[in-house]
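Escalation from tier 1.

The customer reports that the assembly of two entities below gives different C-alpha cells on two consecutive runs. Tier 1 could not reproduce it. I'm attaching the input and our single run for tier 2 to review.
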Amino acid sequence: MLETVLSGLSGLGAGTRYLFTQGGPNVIMLMIAAALIYLGVKKKVEPLLLVPIGFGCMLVNIPLSELMESGGLLRILYEMGISNELFPLLIFVGIGAMIDFGALLENPKMLLFGAAGQFGIFLTLLLALALGFPALEAVSIAVIGACDGPTAIYVASQYAPQLLGPISVAAYSYMALVPIIQPPIMRALTNPAERAIKMAPIKRSVSTQTKLLFPIVVTLVTGLLAPKGLPLMGTIMLGNFMRECGVVARLTKASENEIANIVTLFLGLAIGGTMEGHAFLKPETLMIFGLGFIAICTDTIAGVVFGKIVCKLTKGKVNPLIGAAGISAFPMAARVVQAQGQIYDKKNHLLMHAAGVNTGGQIGSVVAAAVMLSVLKGMGLI
Amino acid sequence: MDNATWSFGLTMMIVGMGGTFLTLWILSLVMDILKKIFPLADKAATPDKK
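Tier 1 run:
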C-alpha cells in the first residue's frame, strides 16, 4: 500500500525532476516565452500574436508537457491549420476584407514601389544560401523580407516546417519594429530637400466598377503568371471582393473579425507549440533572426533608392520617402513615411501616397512569394 | 558556396526580382486599362430623374 502511494507521489514530481536534470533548454525557452508575453502585454508589440505565441511556447516547454505529442492540444491545432496552410490563408481573407486598395488604384504605378520593396527577400535568399542553409530553408527564411506574417508562415510550413517557430517570431517581431528600423535608413539615404518634397494631392478617379473588378483581375493575372501563389492571392482578393461588392456584409465582417480573431489565436498557439527548447535553441535560430533583420533593412533601402530614381525621373514630383512604404507592413509603414515627412514640413501630407505604395507592397509581397514558388516549381525543387 | 548553389541563388534573384517587377508592372497596366474602361462617372453629366 505504502509503495503504491509513494510510486503515485513520484509521478507528481517528475516534471520538476526533469527540469533540474535535463531541462536547461526548457528553462531558457520559458524565459523567452515570458519575454514574448511581456513584449505583447507591456510594450504592445503585435500583442494579438505574441501573447498566444508566448503562451504556446510556455505550454510546450513545461517539462513532460504532452501538448505537442500526438493527440495533444497544440499538435491538433498545428495539424488542423498549419501543416495544411489553412490558418495563414484564412487570415489573408480577413486582411483582404480590411484593406482599401483605393489609394493604389488612384495611381497604379505605385505598384512598382511594391516590387522594389521586395528586394530584401532575394538578397537574403542569397545570404542564407551562403550561410549553408539548404535551398528550401533559405527560401523560407528569405520570405521574412516580405514583411508579411501569413506569407512567411505559409511558405515555411510547406518547405521548412522545422524552422516555422523562429521564422514566424522573426517575421512578426520585425514587422512590429518597422517604426524603429526604417526611419534611420530613410534619413541616411535622403537629403532634407528630398524629404520636404510635396506631392500633388490625389484626386478621386476610381469608379465602383474598377474597385469591384480589381480583385478578380489581380487574381486572374497572378494566377496565370505565378500559379503556385494562387492560394495566397486568391484568398486576399476574395476578402477584398467581398468588401467591395457590398452584398455580403456579414461574411466580410466575419472574415475581418470573428474568423480572423479565432484563427489568430489558434495560429499563435500552434506556432508557440513549435518552439520546443531542444529544437529551437540552435545557432540557426540566431542566424534566422539576423537574416530577417537584414531582409527588412534591405527592403527599406531598395524602396527609398527606387524612390530617389523615380524622383529624378519625374523631376522632383515624387518624395523618395514613400519608397520605404513598399513593404507589406500595413498601415505601419505608410504612417512612418507620413511622420518622417512631417518632421521636415508640418504641412507635407504624404499619407495617401504612402498608403497607395503600402497596399502595393502588400500585393508585391504576395507576388514575390508566388513568383519564387513558381520558379522553384519550374526548377523541379518543389 | 559551390557553383550549383551560387547559380541557384543568382537565378532566384534575377528571375524572382524580374518576375516580381514584370508581374506588378502588368498589374499596373491592367489597372490603368480598367480605369479607362470604367471611368468615374461625372455627377454633373448624370441626367436628373424626376
